[in-house]
Amino acid sequence: MNRIGIDLGGTKIEARLFNAGGRELARERVATPRAYDPTLNTLRTLVTSLEAIYGDARVGVAHPGSISPANGLMRNANSVWLNGKPFATDLSDILGREVRLANDANCFTLSEAVDGAGRDGKVVFGVILGTGVGGGLVINRRLLEGSQGIAGEWGHNPLPWQGPDELDPPTCWCGKTGCLETWLSGPGLASDHARRHGGGETAEALFAAADSGDVAASETIARHTGRLARGLASVANILDPDIIVLGGGVSNAPGLPERVAAALPEWLFSDVCRTRIVRHQHGDSSGVRGAAWLWNETPGDAM
User: Fold this and answer.
1) Which whole-number Å values give the CA distances from 194 to 187, 211, 216, 243, in the listed order?
2) Closest to 11 (Cα-Cα) out of 27, 34, 28
3) Bridge partners of 39?
């Protein structure tokens, strides 16, 4: 049966329709309404439009935040109009069918694990390094969401093995201090540079400056690489993944996977390091692809 994957972002909604073999047949993209009911109506319109041409399909949605297993309400979404709403129930009702949903970082990881950069791994940890920091965990091509629905949310753990210059950490939007997100996100990297050197450069500009030989930018990037290696080592020491896939805008920095792979072994509780650090294959497409792959019927389905 055909599948529709939908990536519900803060500024855009993208929908793609795939056939049973995983071939893309159609796609549509629209602006995201910044209100709850219009968002539901827009999702219904997208599904109806695609099905009018290609017939009935199963629907999967990648969304920000997560759905509480306690009350079924959306929480922690940066699209704040979704928070506190029974989004999964309301979307199922408005479409008149079961809908499968998962956090956008989880869908990224599932996409890369099924037929992307992590396809050769049994245990795949996916990392989002962008405006925020998130992640997901896939085992044998199956998404693991956990008892609280927060599996893979490593961005709100503290930076491990802190150095003297990290003992007065920045405050995170979540209310805690020193979360990995405050160090490793694009804004976190830029803020670290500004605290030491001033200026208002973006993460992208700093990577470019470092690549051109700027000493201060190079020092900032080196600190970021070391912190990323430490953060991932704390995950690897628990999960021992085959592959860690880097995604998000920061992951596109030249040489980042190779630098992190070189720094990782120092922090592992092991005499060998077989975990591979790789960059995403599908990039911005992984959210919508992973949403469709939520309908894999059996482990190892070929897409």
Assistant:
1) 10, 18, 10, 33
2) 34
3) none
Q: Name the token pair of 114.
A: 């099924």
- Are 166 and 159 within 8 A, CB to CB? yes
Angstrom distance (rounded) from CA 32 to CA 10? 6
- What residues contact 38, with CB distance under 8 A and at least 6 apart? none
Q: How many CB atoms lie under 10 A from the CB of residue 254?
A: 10
Burial of 197 (0-12, 13-18, 19+ CB in 10 A): middle
The range of the structural domain enclosing residue 51 comes to 2-107+285-293
pTM, whole model, 2 decimals? 0.91
Give dist(CA 5, CA 24) in Å, integer: 10
Verify that 180 and 162 share a domain, yes or no: yes
User: What residue ranges of the chain have pLDDT lower than 50?
Assistant: 298-303
Beta strand extents in 130-191 (DSSP E only): 133-139, 142-144
> In this structure, is residue 136 part of a structural domain?
yes
Are 178 and 60 within one domain? no
- Look-up: residue for tokens 């072994």? 265
Same domain? 147 vs 229: yes
Residues 145 and 239 grouped into a single domain: yes
pLDDT at position 88: 97
Q: Are strands 133-139 and 123-129 parallel, antiparallel or unpaired?
A: antiparallel
Number of helices and strands (H, E) in the chain? 9, 12
pLDDT at 303: 40
